[in-house]
Design a protein that fits this description.
The complex is a heterotrimer of chains A (210), B (328) and C (90). Residues 1-7 and 19-46 of chain A have low confidence and may be disordered. Chain A is built from six helices and five strands; from the N terminus they run αββαβββαααα. Among the domains of chain A are: 54-129, Ubiquitin-like (UB roll) (Roll), CATH 3.10.20.30; 138-205, Orthogonal Bundle (DNA polymerase, domain 1), CATH 1.10.150.120. A five-stranded mixed β-sheet of chain A has the order 2-1-5-3-4, with helices on both faces. In chain A, helix 3 packs across helix 6 (191-205). In chain A, a hairpin with a 2-residue loop joins strand 1 and strand 2 (63-69). The radius of gyration of chain A is 20 Å and the shape is globular. Chain A has 210 residues and is of the alpha+beta class. The longest helix of chain B has 18 residues, at 309-326. In chain B, helix 5 runs antiparallel to helix 10 and helix 12 packs antiparallel against helix 13. Chain B has helices spanning 12-20, 34-39, 75-79, 82-87, 89-96, 101-104, 109-113, 120-123, 139-142, 165-171, 189-192, 273-279, 286-295, 309-326, and strands at 5-8, 25-28, 47-50, 59-61, 67-70, 175-179, 184-188, 211-217, 224-231, 242-251, 254-263, 270-271. Chain B has 14 helices and twelve strands. Among the domains of chain B are: 1-50, Uridine Diphospho-n-acetylenolpyruvylglucosamine Reductase, domain 2 (2-Layer Sandwich); 224-326, Enolase-like, domain 1. Chain C has one helix at residues 55-75. Classes of the chains: A alpha+beta (210), B alpha+beta (328), C mainly alpha (90). Chains A and B meet through strand 4, helix 4 and helix 5 of A and strand 1, helix 2 and helix 6 of B.
Chain lengths: 210, 328, 90
């Protein structure tokens, strides 16, 4: 092991994670290939490979960014890795959990299933962009008031989903909130408190114009 | 993902030419299916032509009374559209029974038609799957086939068509409008989807480069009762184990005509023609519903783990019929 | 545990429910309002603090059985394997 790979007690958790991810990419194969046997498909896909970067202009939380990205970059990875907006979480990366929910032109969407290139010119809002300076968004406040989380990993997705849900205006009862929040899974099971937080925030926001 | 080039289409004809020119090029609209499958290396296009911003995002009434839904309209926009809710309620119900708001906000009508099976052996990228790698075999047939289809399957493929929207479209006799840069054509929704047969990799009657431009819903004459029942493993955000869409024309207490289609149990959106024939001209009756529903599942070919599906689908049909006729 | 989250292993040892699309965590719509009742009696045999440590793990054990009893009351079918999914009631 070379010196630079030695454990450094001064490394922050985020730096350590970034290093681990980079090392992982270098040795990456599709997870499935570890299983491959004589029955492997004839055409094993080319892994990684180089792609020509492309210029994309994104507007995130009101800020324009001119980026040069791999066309394969999802909106989620671009937010987290390129723009360091790590409040948006990567859960399943396949549209099955809701942790990566952001707003695209005011509508909630899964950033893991969109290419960043598709979002050129769109108004993208992440969890970092909904508070008013130091003043929390009413939905953020309600999640704290009602203890709408345990581990917190799904929380930014839940909040982004809830903010949009209230704007959509299709959910007036608790049952409707539950149905229309079902795209955001919570492994800890904070659902009842999240539901209360959404109902509370919805009541407070009614007519406030936010 | 495999590397690809990305370009934004400026107009429909140019998009069609760009995709037609490259055998492994694909259209990209919402991306909710395609991007997912590209991450899994199930889809490996070398070029993506982004058609999201082409002007195909309109719902309008045509002169003949039908409704035309642009292929780029999002699922949410369809489900909450006033005309759809009023005249084609089954479509609204079916769309809202699928996926989540986040996905429905992005997924388009054209893309939804082209969503691919959730068969785990198709998606895992390593198992034998004739749909993914023609000629490699079908591990679902001998594997854990609880979610497999029981109608329309073949020796080569037992995968289930996963969607909800197309099930409702089938019960509404929808028509799919497609185009190349030279010509346009219309395809009845039942002919749009193909049975797996010996070529399960070919799922629709689209040719390479053809673009879906719109889906139209014929005018519905007279008041109808419409409903969608979906049975699944959890209460929301989950594909159907069995689903049934129904459109009933009633005259007094008699069903004059019925259109019923099934999801979650067949290799393509499945018209329950035997049930429809047995209901026409009859008065609602629970014994009749049971018998008529079962008739459409007589041809079912269940396997080791999905033997429950014919009965579950039968009950889904019974339930939608009962709910619609009780609400009279 | 009672109604969802089946981990299906096939005969070749592959998971057929290897993602959140196949392995079903309960969604918002699956979870009703929950009332928590604290039993206000110390149990010092269990621990020095007098509380039954591990509120989640201990108290959850009875839930699957209770749900299974509810399914029996509703349908007359005694299901002895969790999760209780629609296919088991056919």
């Amino acid at each position: 092991m070379s010196d630079e790979n030695r454990f450094d007690p001064n490394v922050t958790r985020r730096e350590l994670m970034a290093g681990a991810v980079a090392a992982g990419v270098a040795a990456s194969v599709p997870a499935g290939l570890a299983f491959a046997d004589e029955a492997a498909p004839a055409a094993v896909p080319a892994v990684g490979g180089s792609a020509v970067e492309m210029g994309v202009k994104l507007i995130v939380n009101g800020q324009p960014h001119a980026l040069s990205i791999d066309p394969r970059a999802t909106l989620l990875d671009t937010l987290r890795e390129t723009l360091s907006l790590t409040g948006t979480k990567k859960g399943c990366d396949h549209g099955q959990c809701g942790a990566c929910t952001v707003h695209v032109n005011g509508e909630r969407a899964l950033s893991c299933l969109m290419l960043a290139a598709q979002c050129e010119g769109d108004q993208i809002t992440t969890i970092e962009g909904i508070a008013n300076g130091d003043e929390l968004h009413p939905v953020q406040k309600a999640f704290i008031d009602h203890d709408g989380f345990q581990c917190g990993y799904c929380t930014s997705g839940q909040i982004m989903s809830a903010v949009a849900l209230i704007k959509e205006g299709h959910a007036t009862t608790e049952d409707e909130v539950r149905e229309l929040m079902s795209g955001n899974l919570c492994r800890c099971g904070a659902y009842p408190n999240i539901c209360k937080a959404v109902m509370d925030a919805q009541g407070k926001l009614a007519g406030s114009g936010i | 993902m495999q590397p690809f080039t990305y370009e934004k289409a400026t107009d429909q004809a140019a998009a069609a030419r760009a995709v037609a020119a490259e055998k492994t090029a694909k259209y990209l609209a919402g991306g909710t299916t395609l991007v997912d499958l590209m991450k899994l290396y199930v889809e490996t296009p070398t070029k993506l032509v982004d058609i999201k911003r082409l002007p195909m995002a309109e719902i309008r009434r045509e002169a003949d009374g039908s409704i035309s839904i642009g292929a780029g309209v999002t699922n949410s926009a369809v489900a909450y559209h006033e005309l759809v809710q009023k005249e084609y309620a089954v479509l609204s119900q079916a769309i809202l029974a699928g996926a989540s708001t986040q996905i429905r906000n992005v997924a388009t009508v054209g893309g939804n038609l082209l969503q691919r099976t959730r068969c785990p052996y198709f998606r895992d990228g390593i198992s034998n799957c004739n749909k993914r790698t023609p000629g490699s075999g079908c591990d679902m047939a001998t594997g854990f086939n609880r979610t497999a289809a029981v109608l329309g399957t073949s020796d080569r493929c037992v995968a289930t068509y996963p969607g909800d929207m197309a099930i409702a479209l089938l019960s509404l006799d929808a028509v799919v409008h497609v185009a190349t840069d030279q010509a346009t054509r219309k395809i009845a929704i039942d002919d749009f989807f193909l049975l797996p047969g010996n070529t399960p990799e070919k799922e629709t009657s689209l040719s390479h480069g053809e673009i879906i431009t719109a889906v139209s819903l014929p005018r519905i004459d007279g008041g109808t009762k419409q409903g969608y029942v979906k049975v699944r493993d959890r209460a929301s955000y989950e594909f159907a184990l069995a689903s049934a869409a129904a459109v009933l024309w009633m005259d007094g207490g008699t069903i004059t005509q019925a259109r019923i289609s099934l999801g979650g149990v067949a290799s393509k959106p499945w018209r329950a023609k035997e049930t429809e024939a047995m209901l026409a001209g009859k008065k609602p009756d629970s014994a009749l519903f049971r018998e008529a529903a079962a008739a459409s599942l007589k041809a079912a070919t269940p396997m080791k783990y999905n033997a429950f599906k014919p009965e579950l689908a039968t009950r889904a049909i019974e339930r939608v019929l009962t709910e619609l006729t009780q609400a009279a | 545990m009672a109604l969802t989250e089946a981990a299906h292993l096939d005969e070749k040892g592959r998971y057929a429910s290897a993602d959140f699309g196949g392995y079903h965590l309960p969604s918002h719509a699956d979870v009703p309002d929950i009332e928590v009742e604290v039993i206000n009696a110390a149990d010092e045999n269990f621990g020095a603090l007098g509380s039954r440590g591990g509120v989640g793990e201990l108290s959850i054990s009875g839930v699957a059985a209770a749900v299974s009893n509810a399914v029996y009351n509703a349908t007359g079918k005694r299901i002895r394997e969790v999760p209780i999914t629609p296919d088991k009631l056919i």
